UniProtKB/TrEMBL annotation:
Associated pathway: Protein modification; protein glycosylation
Topology class, membrane: Single-pass type II membrane protein
Localization, UniProt: Golgi apparatus membrane
Annotated GO MF terms: galactosyltransferase activity
Coiled-coil region list: 83-110
Organism: Salix brachista
Cellular component GO terms held in the UniProt record: Golgi membrane
EC number: 2.4.1.-
Protein name: Hexosyltransferase
């Protein structure tokens, strides 16, 4: 018991002292923690040294971002410029196409208004000429080839006349420029894609028919030399009688000897093809003037690359029709002589369509004598006005 009593009294005192000490210690710890917290907080909010680098880093990031952004904007801008240029080109092309279309429509309307659209002509006359033949051309213009308003009336009647010439061996040279100047003055040339030369007459003939049949839809296509006199109304009446024939070859038919001796005029290098020496050519129209129907001109155009050319163009033309179903029309009014021959025939009521001198293969000294022949053997001045084809 005594043991219990001692134990109880001594334990209470010890507990009381421990409580006081604990309270004081707790307060001390609280104040210590408070001040320690203040010190720690101040230290934590102090700006660290490394933060001095942060603006640079930010600037670098901004620069990189701006660089990327600028590149993107630049690329977009370039693309937009390219698109804009492309659109401008397209607009320009569309405008040009529209202008060309409008021009074509205008020309078509003009052609339709003037009656030239798909118009049918009666005859197209090509006057074979050379660079050196200016005076010959002028003599023709002054006589049987209508000029100015009369030329327009003639075409309204269905007759087209052009001087036919190719180009010189020197393209754009003085010879070509002279023809261009003459064309500007008269407007009566047909230029062929052909190099001029006497030995190239057969080639020129093929090119001529191939060209005119493409340019004009006509019943007849005619070739005539520039030193020959022609009465247009009489020629038209002769051809009108054969208008319904599909394949007709009209001229003054002949069959001359094949000349095998070199150096002579009209020498035939291929004489051996015509048999024994002294043989004659097949029947063909003399070269001063001949006419062919549209079907034959078309045949020449289609087959021009395989048609053989003899040195003489009238022989070549006749050879192209051998083996075809062609009607040869031999009319002596297409090869009358100059006065007095054509004169007395006119008095007898048989006006000549074509006049020339056989010995010269044309009118001898045609520049000086064309007017004489025209006055003596020419048809009535109103003959064309009254003619109907």
């Amino acid at each position: 018991m005594s043991v219990k009593g001692r134990g109880g009294v001594g334990g209470g005192e010890m507990w009381s002292r421990n409580v006081v000490v604990s309270r004081n210690l707790a307060l001390l710890l609280c104040f210590s923690s408070f001040f320690a917290g203040i010190l720690f907080t101040n230290r934590m909010w102090t700006e660290p040294e490394r933060t001095n680098l942060e603006p640079e880093a930010c600037d670098q990031k901004l620069k990189v971002g701006n660089h990327i952004s600028n590149n993107s904007v630049g690329q977009i801008s370039n693309t937009q410029n390219d698109i804009s240029k492309f659109n401008s080109k397209i607009s320009s092309i569309e405008m040009k196409l529209a202008a060309a279309k409008a021009e074509q429509q205008s020309l078509t309307r003009a052609d339709a208004a003037s009656g030239n659209l798909k118009r049918k002509y009666f005859m197209v006359i090509g006057i074979n000429t050379a660079f050196s033949s200016r005076k010959r051309r002028d003599s023709v213009r002054a006589t049987w080839m209508p000029q100015g308003e009369e030329k327009k009336k003639l075409e309204e009647k269905g007759i087209v006349i052009r001087f036919v010439i190719g180009h010189s061996s020197t393209a754009g040279g003085i010879l070509d420029r002279a023809i261009e100047a003459e064309e500007m003055m008269h407007g009566d040339f047909l230029r062929l894609e052909h190099v001029e030369g006497y030995l190239e007459l057969s080639s020129k003939t093929k090119t001529y028919f191939s060209t005119v049949v493409a340019l004009w839809d006509a019943d007849f296509y005619i070739k005539v030399d520039d030193d020959v006199h022609v009465n247009l109304a009489t020629l038209g009446k002769i051809l009108a009688g054969h208008k319904k024939k599909p394949r007709v070859y009209v001229g003054c038919m002949k069959s001359g000897p094949v000349l095998s001796k070199k150096g002579v005029r009209y020498y035939e290098p291929e004489y051996w093809k015509f048999g024994e020496a002294g043989n004659k050519y097949f029947r063909h129209a003399t070269g001063q003037l001949y006419a062919i129907s549209k079907d034959l001109a078309t045949y020449i155009s289609v087959n021009q690359h395989i048609l053989h050319k003899y040195v003489n163009e009238d022989v070549s033309l006749g050879s192209w029709f051998i083996g075809l179903d062609v009607e040869h029309v031999d009319d002596k009014r297409l090869c009358c002589g100059t006065p007095p021959d054509c004169e007395w025939k006119a008095h007898l009521g048989s006006t000549c369509a074509v006049s020339f001198d056989w010995k010269c293969s044309g009118i001898c000294r045609s520049v000086e004598r064309m007017m004489e022949v025209h006055k003596t053997c020419g048809e009535d001045v109103n003959a064309l006005d009254h003619a109907s084809f």
